[in-house]
Predict the structure.
Amino acid sequence: MRSKRTDKEAALAAKRHAAQAAIGQIRHDCRLGVGTGSTANEFIALLPEVRDRITAVASSSQATTALLSELGFEVLPLGQCGTLDLYVDGADETDNHRRLIKGGGGALTGEKILVASSRRFVCIVDESKRVKLLGKFPLPVEVIPMARSAVARKLAAMGGQPQYREGVVTDYGNDILDVRNLSILDPVEMETEINQIPGVVTVGLFARRRPELVIVGTAQGAYSL
Ligand code: 5RP
């Protein structure tokens, strides 16, 4: 049996390999959107290698901006950058069609805005994030606080079991519901349906706009979906 330490080291190596491969996607004069989470953090740690090539925009005003600033990057507001050349971020799940669940870290709305503002979206994951069918990871839904119960009832009517993520307030002052047991057979349709519930800010399904590339890191290297 492998030790816990070895498993942890292998998981970290996988994230680093995916992050390193994503650095290779950065061209000169790149307006770069930077995501949130432990895999995105590995990517951020490598960004000093390409400091002279990038202008950075962050998906999360808290976590990502703080890390980039610590490394001496000026973080520009999206409004000053217009269309981004590239957005790099992790995910909680990816299927074989590169459709994702994101939002485990609570930054799904900023992430979706940056994805929609980017010419190219590259997702970086380790192999544990690969699934045949999306939905084992509870689906995050950001909601306006006054609509939380009403949205929860609609999600329950769709067959899900929504749970309020206690103690979490998003960058935009909203709540998050994590929804278990949804049968996500058609992720594009479900993304559309949930986004149309009044009070939903955004759902953590990234299926209508998928990444152009998913880089899967392993303990030995990386491959693409
Ligand atoms: C944050 C996200 C993250 O990308 C996602 O939760 C993956 O995080 P990690 O790389 O730590 O597993 O969507 O909102």
In short: The two ends are 30 Å apart (CA to CA).
